[in-house]
Specification:
- This protein has two domains: about 140 residues, Ferritin (Up-down Bundle), CATH 1.20.1260; about 210 residues, TIM Barrel (Alpha-Beta Barrel), CATH 3.20.20.
- About 55% of the residues lie in helices and about 10% in strands.
- The chain has an eight-stranded parallel β-barrel with strand order 1-2-3-4-5-6-7-8, surrounded by eight helices.
- The radius of gyration is 24 Å and the shape is elongated.
- It starts with a helix and ends with a helix.
Length: about 350
């Protein structure tokens, strides 16, 4: 049994160490209470199981100097380019260790087998949450100009959505969100337009977000989805999206923004900052909300996007309030020249 005790001891250590890496990322890098709690709870569960095991026999059986595995390593083990690499390696190490504990427990302590299995499945969710936050946040971190477009608004200028988006991207737009309401158009038309925009944004090297519709985002291969306060929960939307897809959430106060962080959003939209005819988003939040969000230690861990009534004349005020990503609709879509309008706003962001 000495060999089995060595295996159990080594994999308990591996699993707890990996969970500590994940917990520290959730706590100090992402400032994500949910991720931190998930890792901490799994560590606690492992500790409870460990305390029921023959600890003395496991520790006595430990033989670090005589372990042939300590001298073996691959080049990839010594290379980590960024935090994502660190977390990915830790999560893989965690699930491998838990699988080993689960298998050997079947004849050493079968009463714990199902518990190891549950912790392993929880670890897959932890990995998804951690990497999703890291990938999504990185994708939006440097975005400055974010275009909201709908066929209804563009039609008022007698232009096509594709013409408007192409011109806006030429003027400096980096992310395009298609915002089609069911009351304005049917699903088939929305799907066709989303597919055309996917081709255009791919061609021009920009990201495409679909408003409210993770199903359509998944079908056309969009980069992500944007959800309002009354739309699907973020976790449920992710079930339909490809790994690493971006999920944003609209918020109108600090409490909602903090909740969005805890739910696993990749970016937070804040507003409406000014009066707007584009969407009924409730009372004006004003620049004060932007200042509060940019100073909040939980909220400011995510990329922040200001939205609502922003144009070339007030964009500088938004940036001065602490938010440098601006979501624009009417000021570009209603402009006679969307390219020039986008460029003028982009200059204010710079």
């Amino acid at each position: 049994m000495k060999e089995i005790y060595r295996i159990l001891d080594a994999n308990f250590n591996r699993a707890r160490e990996a969970l500590r890496v994940a917990e520290d990322c959730g706590r100090f890098v992402l400032n994500d209470p949910a991720v931190t709690a998930m890792a901490k709870n799994s560590r606690s569960d492992l500790r409870e199981i460990f305390d029921t095991m023959p600890i003395k026999e496991m520790v006595v059986s430990r033989d670090a100097p005589g372990d042939v595995g300590t001298e073996l390593s691959s080049p990839s083990e010594l290379a980590r380019d960024d935090i994502t690499d660190v977390v990915t390696a830790a999560c893989k190490r965690l699930t491998e260790a838990l699988r080993t504990l689960e298998e050997y427990s079947k004849f050493v302590s079968p009463e714990h087998t199902q518990r190891f299995e549950r912790i392993r499945y929880d670890s897959y969710t932890l990995e998804q949450r951690l990497l999703g936050r890291l990938w999504g946040g990185r994708a939006m971190a440097d975005v400055g100009l974010y275009l909201l477009v709908s066929s209804k608004i563009v039609a008022s200028q007698h232009a096509s959505v594709l013409q408007t988006v192409r011109a806006a991207i030429a003027g400096g737009v980096e992310v395009v969100q298609l915002r089609e309401k069911p009351s304005d158009t049917c699903d088939a038309v929305t799907l066709a337009l989303a597919a055309e925009l996917r081709e255009l944004t791919d061609e021009m090297g920009k990201r495409l977000i679909i408003n409210d519709r993770p199903d359509i985002a998944a079908i056309v291969g969009a980069d992500g989805v944007h959800l309002g306060q009354h739309d699907l929960p973020i976790a449920e939307a992710r079930r339909l999206l490809r790994p690493g897809a971006i999920v944003g959430r609209s918020t109108h106060n600090i409490a909602q923004a903090q909740t969005a962080v805890q739910e696993g959003a990749d970016y937070i939209a804040l507003g409406p900052v000014f009066e707007t005819d584009t969407k009924d988003a409730g009372p004006i939040a004003g620049l004060e909300l932007l200042k509060q969000a940019s100073a909040d230690p939980i909220v400011n861990t995510l990329p922040l996007v200001a939205i609502g009534g922003i144009n070339a004349s007030n964009a500088a005020q938004v940036v001065d309030a602490g938010v440098s990503c601006l979501a624009i609709c009417g000021a570009i879509c209603n402009a006679p020249d969307p390219k020039t309008a986008a460029r003028e706003i982009r200059e204010q962001i710079k």
